[in-house]
Amino acid sequence: MTRPPDDSDLSDTGVDLDETNAALEDTVADVELDEALDEIEAPAGDHDAELEDGGKLLEGFDPEAHHVNVSQQRSVKRAIKSEGGQFVIGLLVFALALGVLALAATIRTQPWLIAAGVVAPPALIWFFLRWKRWLAGAPYAYRLLTSLGEDADNLLEERRQKMLREGMDPGEK
């Protein structure tokens, strides 16, 4: 049975462990990484990047203490209150209303029918209003593409040309 060598066994080999460890600290990869990082220039003004309300980008951000940037929380609230956010909430309400309707149609008991009659009509009307607000008079495909960050101005131009061909004034809507 062999035992693993310890430091005393290596002392008689003539190898200086301190020099070996020091030589291994700066490997070629570390040196190349340090050189590559030195070549990267920080963008001008990045150090003083500020948000709309004047707060620093990383102010209050401490991942070890589980603190997140307060401005990120405000942007979520702003996104939920936007037309697109309200549309997504409307979709959830619409799905809930359809679920109650389907359950009432399947079970056919008086409490579920009453619940469907009370919940579904206002939910469906509220969803329809959120959908119309999200569209804002634009074609569905245009609104969908722009909410996904795409450039869809050609769709509006095509719609305007179609309305002109039909004799309608595009400014009336």
Describe the structure.
The protein is an all-alpha fold and 173 residues long. Among the domains are: 71-135; 137-173, no CATH class. It is 63% helix and 0% strand. The longest helix has 26 residues, at 110-135. The protein is elongated, with a radius of gyration of 32 Å. The N and C termini lie far apart (92 Å).
Short description:
The protein has helices at 7-10, 17-25, 28-39, 70-81, 83-107, 110-135, 140-147, 153-165. With 173 residues, it is mainly α.
Order of helices and strands: HHHHHHHH
What number is the mean pLDDT? 76
Radius of gyration: 32 Å
Could you give a short account of the major beta sheet? Answer: none
Q: State the share of residues found in helices, binned by percent.
A: 55-70%
Span of the ends, CA to CA: 92 Å
Strand content: under 5%
Number of strands: 0
Given helix and strand content, the structural type is mainly alpha
